[in-house]
Amino acid sequence: MKYVIILTDGCADIPVAELGNLTPLEKSSTPNMDDFAKNGSLYLVKTVPDGMKPGSDVANLSVMGYNPLNCYTGRSPLEAASIGVKIEDNQTTFRANLVTLSDEENYSEKTMLDYSAGEISTEESRALMADIEKALGGGDIHFYGGVSYRHLFVWTDAPSKFTLTPPHDISDRKISDYLPSDERIYNLMKKSEEILKNHPINQKRIAEGKNPATSMWIWGEGTRPALDLFEELYNKKGAVVSAVDLIKGIAILAGMKSIDVEGATGNIHTNFDGKAKAAADALLKDNADLVYVHLEAPDECGHQGDAIGKTRSLELIDEKVIGYIRSRLEKAGEDYAFMVMPDHPTPVSTKTHSSDPVPCVIYKKGDNRANDYRFTEEFARKYGEKVDVGYTIMKKFLDK
Description:
- Helix content is 36%, strand content 19%.
- By secondary structure, the chain is an alpha/beta fold.
- Strands 9-8-10-1-11-12-2-13 form an eight-stranded mixed β-sheet, with helices on both faces. Strands 3, 4, 5, 6 and 7 form a five-stranded antiparallel β-sheet that branches.
- The chain is globular, with a radius of gyration of 21 Å.
């Protein structure tokens, strides 16, 4: 039996006026997902435990079968594992986004225009982070380049408490109410603006009509994590396909194979075909028992308030990823099971995550319930089995 998890990051939503008061899942044409819903089993899964923030870190840990209440130590340490930065017990890690702020002279009066600096390329952003490290790093603090706008800040013997806000939670808002409580972090962010504002890379981006990376934004603190090995927990050899350091880091810490795909970007322009082929190859050529395919595009469209893009991303996932992997497994004569679900909702109307339970469908080859269902939020609410402890969905999937 081969197990496939398709993680449609942030795809759950609420009705959107632009889509005729439908959600992107309801509006999109997704024949594979709908076939799974008609013939398989629907669930409504609470992936974010009460009292925890609805981040992709917490929610993906749940979907991957880990109890966040027991193992979560913060987002950035998971990303550090992907980048290859070893974290010591006395170190605190942080996410360091490159963002676009408005151009008011007073830093605190600026507005968060773009949490991704125009989805800046990895090549450009790593060069910018190298200059930030050269100017601001050293001693007890260091900066490390990641992927696109997502980077890492490590502080040795840092204070124990911080008040920090994810930049994607404050799109189009003044940053004055969301600035860090720690003076040193605030000063690092202000100093980064001085380094970046006239940087040749940003001048070139402005000339090309792209958003420049005008500041570093620090958030997502955490400490050294420890995860049980996935294979020891579930007796399955696992692989993960993702463009995002967070998910790659979870895979590495869980002892799963993290597969890199050329052209995988974490947005709607990602290499869907390459991701699908890598996943199928992991199952059929590398003898993995389970593959976790993480697709960030619906989440990015949600953060950008792009309902049309979110709908299109779901259609691409259904056709190019689910359809391809399913076809490969059928041709190989393999028994298989699919689980399709988001980690959390990212409504286009709010541009940020919510803790609401998410739809999930599990389909095993040969299932034939012939229900008149679709894979949508409403069908999951009406007909799905409720799973209030999110991390138990993995056991339900594997037991099926």
